[in-house]
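Morning run. Coffee first, then this:
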Amino acid sequence: MVGSNVAGSFINAVIMTSVLSAGNHALFAGTRLLYTLAVDRHAPQVFARLNRNKIPWISVLATSFISALCFTSSFIGAGQVWTWLQNIVGVSNQLSWIAIGIASLRFRAALEVQGKTHLLPFRNWTYPWGPWFSVVLNLLLVLVQGWNCFSPSFDGVAFVSYYIELPIMLVMFVGWKVWNRTSIVPLSDMDLETDVYEIHSGDIDNNLGPEWGNNLQTIIRLLF
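And here it is:
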């Protein structure tokens, strides 16, 4: 609109960078989650198989295959399937952050009940408002993000794509509890001892002296 001939290319570069970054993160996160589920025996054990470089290559291939299918869906039905997947994934992410916020609140509450808060080596400076903000804001987003399926007229297909994840997650949660006969663990009974990471003097890198800015290897290690 302002007559710039390079603005379009600049925006395209920004979008491509964001897409590649998000794709790289999603591939890593999906692979790590699938591998962890397999290790904990919540997914087929084949996904826990590692190669000689300790890479869960089957999980990488499976995640990449699903990603390719999702990308291909953008060409089906004039992009309608892709829109549905976007809506479902968006709600899934918001539900994940709600669960993270609740887990954070219960974890800190259990530490206080058991008198172990002083043992935290690192503390989130946003607590307790940060987790509450995450829970409330994401709940609000889950409820209102599908407002366009109600206006100007009700769109049943769009409504399903926006909100089908809610009953699915509820059924999965309740089904897991019923099938495994588990219950909500009281704060006083939460296991805060198993697999606790203890910091030792050798875990701290003392080689970061005043000349760290000139050390390219140190900068790369800090970034990646």
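DSSP finds seven helices and no strands in the chain. Good start to the day.
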